[in-house]
Structures are given as structure tokens and as C-alpha cells.
Amino acid sequence: MAEAIRRRWGHFRRQPVFTGFCLFMAVLALNIIIQTPAKFFTVSNFRILLSKNMPLILTCLGQSVLMMCGVLDLSTGIQLAFVNVIAIMLPQELGVPVGLGWACALTGGVLISLFCGFCIVKLRLPALLTTFSITYIIKGVNVLIMGEPQGKVEKIIYKTYDSVLFGFLPFAALILLAVLLIWQYIKRTRYGRHMYAVGNNPRNAYAVGINPERVQMKAFLIKGFIVGLAGLCLTASNASGNPLQAEEYGIRSLSACMLGGMNFGGWGTLSCGLFGAGFLVIVQNAVYYLFNFLTKAIQGLMINSYWQNLVSDTIIFLGLLATIITAKAQRETLKQGFVKQLKRGEKYGG
Amino acid sequence: MFEMRGITKDFDAVKALKGASLSVRPGEIRSLLGANGSGKSTLVKVLAGLVKPDGGEVFIDGKPVRIRTSYDSKQLGIATAFQDLSLIPTMTVIDNIKLNKETVGRFGTIDVKKDRRDVEELLKLFRVRCDLDAYAQTLMPSTQSMLEVAKAVYAKPRLLLLDEVTATLHHDEIEGLFELLRKLRDEGTAIVYVTHRMKEVAKLCDSATIMRNGETVAELARDELNDLDGIVYHMTGKVPDKAKACGAQAAAAEGEALLEVSGLKYSPKVRDLSLTAYKGEILGIGGLDGQGQSEFIRLLLGEFQPEAGAIRYRGKEVRFRRPAEAVENGIGFISGERNREAIFPLRTIAENLFVGRTATGGLFKFIGNRRVNGFAREAVEKYNIKVGELEDPASSLSGGNQQKLIVARWIAVMPELLLLDDPTKGVDIASRREIHQILRQCAQKGMTVVVSSSDNDELMDLADRIYVFYEGRVQALLSCEDKTQERLVAEMMGFAEKEERANG
Q1: Partners of residue A207 in chain B, C-beta under 8 Å
Q2: Which of B281, B145, B90, A111 lies closest to B153, judged by CA?
């Protein structure tokens, strides 16, 4: 029995998700202590945590799908705003039924993701630089559609989004579960295997008859769908439109994936993205309560939000450092992966 | 019946294949032989769909087929085990072997249990024992090679291509593999076997195709495979002419030893290397690709640290920790990989020339533009590099002139020991001749030149004595009357194996 547990533990330690899991657990414990268990383990706390952060969590999942295939998309964050803008403006300006409008918004998210995929995969442009510039293109489009923050969402929608089912299950958790379930299926298909193969070594994947371009384009399709959902969650949670929000989610999701133990190229699973996102969310939450506690404990202490960011980002930085130090063997792959994102892609079978 | 006719392929200026042909019948193991760069691997890659040929035709059973992608190749029943392996390092053994051949069970998901059974069975056949859930990158090189072959065989191909798969295998593993290949042959699989080991050819193969410079030059039948001299003749294209007169230079070289290396070890490529270089000689290092030559050069330079062995230089035992230390001690290094290891493409020609000198000066020493340019002008005139303007970027020069630039960079600082690693790779014949000329002049002035080359003609032409490396050891030292093209090629293939066959 003890032997079996030790073996499983040894196996788990070698998994890519290991560092991400440890980091997540560490900050979770910290958060529970700061917030006190009695206040942390409440349904309403979970509801707020999940519904407020669902857009970020989903974005991280989308990004990790891309990273598995050895690509990335920095413009993911602003794509959320794009979906948000369409979802608000279609019903408001053109009188489209809300359901149809939101479906269009989701489709828009998929299309814009495919456009990024086209640039990176088919035109073989460097992923990091291309998507960085695409961020500004999308931003411009957003502002064209919606000049300033405005609009509202019907009450039933954000009420539903914020609701708790059966007394314990937040609605937002349901969306997350659905995405994870779909992923569990994809992972078990041939396509799931091909993603890893292409991510790690596209040339060798090509040599066994896999079409790397098609695999990567499909990843952009999946990511587009997930980001579309994230955009709708953002709309429901904010109950308004803002063409310039969520831009930093692009880079945040990237760091979340790396915190979770992902590498560019065939190393890491979706749970890496999940734990990485969880780490970000909990760190912010914990730091917020920490400063709350401090202002109460120390008379006359003034807090501004930049201090909170300073502390939380320092913790995140330390976390990133930890992943790089623990994943010694992967350092070289990580470096190569970064270089790959800055270079034009290779052509196979030329 | 698989047939390739008149295949041509150019990589930029280099003609890799010039009308190569190959044919193999079902139930035949045909070996594909040739020296370095004769186009064997390219030909294999054409069949595998990794390289698109510029011209020529492929026939299967008399019908012309087109192989545009690796997918086409798979569809035609061709499977390949590559020399540089096509495994995915971060995937498990099962996933690697089953990649793109996964069993799809109910609901479109992979039938994991059946995959495991299949792979277990397959590996039993290959007598490979390893953890099926281990990542490929954690396995030993020999196991990885076996998996590469197993993966190709698992596709149940009609044509199996094996490109130097035995390089890392142990003796008994090779025996087992051969047994299996013979069985496949008897079942009607056509097999093309690329190797450098003559012993394996005689043991396993039914016929041979020999390539030279991208052309198919000979087809040998079973009974001709034991004639090593004949094979070497086809590979080099030269009639054996015995015993050239020993040059005066070689005799003069027996002077003061500048560099003595003994028992150098650097796993896995360098196993046990000992050699001596005398003052004012040109020492050649020959061998097939990857027998430890480039590692050896970099060990001397201090880029790698040897695990065992000693380097005596100028009569003292030295161990350089960085290339910079070696350069300070009068060692120069010219690499054939000029883009990766030598040229600064965006900097000017003058700066590229001067950079060798800066390595020996102080870090904050002031260097004026006039000094750089004066130095460069002198070097350009002396070594006859055709340049537009000294201020132009180095990338404006042709490959041959870039290489001359690198040579001039180091000659100009007059090192005592000059190391060259394949210095004329991809350099046109005229520039090559000029580089040789410069090196000879330097040797006459007392510089010791150690040159490793994959080009046999270059070694024959340039070197006074040639050390032949084979699997990380010195296979032979050729000088005087021994120094013939035929001896060189025979030693490169592992001469000892020939004797073994004669005895056994």
C-alpha cells in the first residue's frame, strides 16, 4: 500500500503539472489562513471567486491549448473585449435578439482566433510579435464598433450567471466543468496525441504523416471557442461593454500557463493552465485580504491598489522563478520554445 | 518493385542529387552505400516525403507515383527509420510507436488498452525491455534507436527504409534486429538499408547500390559484397594507385611536438583519442561524420571539458576552461559552420577581420576606426579577398569569400596552433584552393595546422599526416606511402572489421 502510494507520488512528481499544483496549494493554504477557514469555505465566497475570475481562468485554458501545440496568442486578452463589444452592440444598435447576438459574438471570437492562427501557422510569422501587433488591430476595431464604455445586459442574464445551483454549485463553475469535460474528450482522441507531437517536434510529427498546420489551426479553433465563452462570461459578469478591457489577460494567461508548469512544445496539460490560473486568482485574493487585515490592524494605514499589485506580482514572479528552478531539465526546451516564438516558422517537406 | 529514376535535388547552390536511381524488389534487402555527402540520406528522405525532388520519377510496380508529403509516402506503404530519429522526446513509448496509428475505439476515443497490448507484443518481438510509460527522452540512445525501427516496422510497410539505425546499437541488439529484418524480407518486405559498416552489408544484405556525389554509380549483386576493395573503388571513383612518394614536408614535420593529446574522453562521442602534432605541419583528421572530430577540436579549444585524458601544449599540460583562454595562448579556431560560429553577418568586413585581434587585448582598450580599417585593408590585400567596401556588412560577401574572411581573421593574428573544423564546407572550388594555399604558407612559416575535414580530397591534398577517427577512437595514422584515398576510405569504414571477416 505504502509502496503503491510512493510510486504514484513519484510518478506525479515527474508530471508537468507538479510545480503548478504545489504553487497553487501553497497560496491556497496562505489564503485560507489569512481569510480564516470559516469565511473561506462558504458558498458565496466560492461564487464570487469563480464568477469574477471565470474570464481569466477560461483564457488561461485557451492559452494552454495553444501552448501544447507550440504556439501562443498574446492578443487573447483583447479578443475577450472584442467578444464583449459584439455581444453588447448587436442587440443594442441593430436590435438583434440577445441570444443570436451572443452566438454571433462567440463566432466572432472563433473567427478572430482563426485569423491569428492563419498568420502564425499558414504565413508562418513569429507568434509573439505577430499577436502583439494584432492586439492593437483588434483594439482599434473594438473602438470603431464601440466608441466608449456603454451598454447593459438584461437582468436575467447576470442574475443567472451569478446564481448558485442546488445551493452549492455556482453557475460559473458549470461553464468551467463543461469546458473541462470537452477537453477530457479531446484529450482521448487521436487529435489529442497529435497536439503533443506537433508541439514538441513538428518535423518529426510531419515525418509520421501528421499535418502540423492542420493540428495547430484546430488548436486555434478550440482556443477561439473557449475565449468566446470567456468573453461572454466577462459580459455577464460586468453587465456592460468596454472596448479596452482585459488586454492584460493575454500576457497574464501566458504567465499562468508557465506557472502551471507548461513549456512551449508538447509539455504540460490543460490542468497546468488551470492551476496556473488558480494561482493567479488566489494570490490576488489573498493579498487583498492581507491588506484588508493590515488596514484594520494598523491605525491610519492608507492602501492604494498599486501596493497590492506590487505584492501580488512579486509573489507571481517568485512563482515563475520556482517553476524554472524546479524544472531544471526543461530549461533548455523552454529557451528553445521562446526562440521559436520569435522566429518565422519552418516549412516542412520543401 | 520500387524504383526511383533520375532523381535530382538542389539545395540552393549544392547539388545533393544528380540523377540518382535506386530499385528494390519485395523480399530483398538492398544496402545503400556511399561516402559522406554522396546523397544517401537525401534519397531516403525523398522516398519518405520529407524532401521534394526537383526532377525524376518514382515507380511502384511499374506505375508512376508522386510523393509530395510524408502522408503520401505512408499511403504508399513506405515506412522510414531515420538516422536522427523521429521520436517525440516528451511522449511515452506507447504514444510514440502508435503516433498517427492509434486505435480508435468507441466514441472516437483512443483504445488505450489495445494500444498497450499491441506495443507490448511489438517490443517483445524486438526484445526491447523498457517502461512503456517512460518518456522517450529518458531512454538510452540504443533503446531509442530500436524504438525508431520498431515504429517503422509496426506500420507493416511494403518498403522499409532504415537510415543508419545501428550506429548506437550494441552487438547483440544488432543480431536480434538482423534476425527480424531477415524474417520481414522472407515475408516479402522490400528493405533499403543505409549503413557505413561494411561488415553489416556482407552479413545482411542481398545487393547494394553505391552512390557518389549524388549519382548512382554501381549496382552490386550478393557475391560482390565481400569485395571491399571493389566497393571502395566505386565509392571513391579512383583506381588504386599504390605508394606515393613520401613528401619532404612530412619528413621535416618530425620536429618538435607542439601538441600531444593522450587518452582524451568526452562521452559519448569521444572515447579514447591520442595524437601528436608537430611544429609546422598540417595534420589532417578524417573519418565519417560524427566520429568525434568536431568534439575533439572543441575539447582542444576549451569549449568542452574532457572527462579524462591530458592535453600537452607547448610542452606543458594545459586545461583551458574557456575558448578565450585558448586564444590568449595562441590557438586559433576556424569553423566550417560560419553562420553559427564565425561570421557576424551584420557587422562590417573590417570589424569581422579585426575581431580576432580584440580577443587578445584588454576589455576596455580603446580601438580607433582607423586602426580597424588599416588592419583590415592590409589583411584583404594580403589574402586576396574580393570585397566591395570594407564598410559593407559581411553578409554581402559570397560564402567562399566569407570563409576566406574567417581564415584571414585568424591568420592575421598568427596563432601558433590553428584548429579548423571542416573549413571548406560548402565553399566553391576556387576559394577552397586559395584557402589551402594560405594554410600551406602558414605551415611553412612554422604554424601548426590541425584540420578536420569530411572531404577526403581536401585531406589528401592538404595534410602531411592523417589521423582517421572511428567511433571516438583513432583508427589509423596515415602518412607517407600509406596516405592513399583507398586506405583512407577503408579506414574510415573501420578497417579492423575487414580483418575480422577474413579470419572468421
Answers
A1: 48, 50, 70, 80, 82, 86
A2: B145
Indicate the pLDDT class of residue A143, thresholds 50, 70 and 90: very high
Q: What is the mean pLDDT of chain B?
A: 83
Whole-number pLDDT of residue B248: 45
pLDDT band at residue B387 using 50, 70 and 90 as cut-offs: low
Question: What's the confidence (pLDDT) of residue B498?
Answer: 45
ipTM at complex level: 0.78
Domain for residue B335, yes or no? no
Is a pLDDT exceeding 60 seen at residue A238? yes
pLDDT average, residue stretch B76-92: 88
Nearest by CB to residue B52, choosing from A185, A205, A349, is A349
Q: How many domains does chain A have?
A: 1
Residues B82 and B209 in one domain: yes
CATH number for the domain that contains residue B30: 3.40.50.300
Whether residue A49 lies inside any domain: the answer is: yes
User: Residue B193: which pLDDT band, with cuts at 50, 70 and 90?
Assistant: very high
Question: Could you tell me if residue A293 is inside a domain?
Answer: yes
**How far is the alpha carbon of B106 from chain A, nearest alpha carbon, in Å?**
10
- At B181 the pLDDT is 92
The pLDDT, as a whole number, for residue B500 is 44
Q: Which of the listed residues B236, B264, B295 is the one where a domain comes to its end?
A: B236
Question: Residue A51 carries which side chain, given as an amino acid letter?
Answer: S
Instruction: Round to whole Å and give the CA distance between B115 and B132.
Output: 11
Total CB pairs under 8 A between chain A and B: 83
Residue A158's domain comprises: 20-35+45-342
Residue in chain A nearest B155 by alpha carbon: A208
Q: Would you say residue B125 lies in a domain?
A: yes
Cell of A127: 507568434
Short-list B278, B85, B274, B226, CA closest to B167? B85
> For residue A191, what is the nearest residue in chain B, using CA coordinates?
B100
Q: How far is CA B44 from CA A318, B205, B208, B436, in A?
A: 49, 17, 15, 34
Same domain membership, residue B117 and residue B195: yes
- In this complex, which of B50, B88, B151 lies closest to A200 when CB atoms are compared? B88
Nearest Cα neighbor of A256 from A309, A197, A323 is A323
Q: Which of B42, B86, B87, B114 to mutate to test the interface with A (most CBs of A within 10 A)?
A: B86
Whether residue A207 and residue B87 make contact (CB cut-off 8 A), yes or no, is no
Contact check, Cβ <8 Å, B99/A208: yes
Q: B236, B256, B276: which is the final residue of a domain?
A: B236
Chain B residue with CA closest to A188: the answer is B109
Q: What is the pLDDT of residue A268?
A: 82
Shared-domain flag, residues B45 and B107: yes
Residues in A whose CB is inside 8 Å of some CB of B read 185, 188-190, 192-194, 196-197, 200-201, 204-211, 265-267, 333, 348-350
Write the residue in A209, A265, A266 that is nearest to B74 by C-beta: A209
CA distance B101 to chain A (A): 9
Q: Residue B34 region, left (φ>0) first, then alpha (ψ -120 to 50), else beta?
A: left
> Is B277 found in the same domain as B188?
no
B351 and B398 part of one domain: yes
- Cell 594545459 locates to B318
In a domain, A280, yes or no: yes
pLDDT bin (cut points 50, 70, 90) of residue B81 is very high
Cell numbers 582524451 label which residue? B264
- The closest alpha carbon to B259, from B328, B199, B310, B206, belongs to B310
With beta carbons under 8 A apart, name residues in chain B contacting A204. Answer: 85-88
- DSSP code, position B110: B
Q: Rounded to the nearest 10 degrees, how much is the dihedral formed by the CA atoms of B337, B343, B346, B348?
A: -150
CATH number of domain containing A176: 1.10.3470
The residue segments making up the domain with residue B384 are 341-413
For residue A214, the model assigns a pLDDT of 93
Of B70, B86, B108, the CB nearest to A189: B108
Q: Which chain A residues are closer than 8 Å to B52 by Cβ? A: 349-350
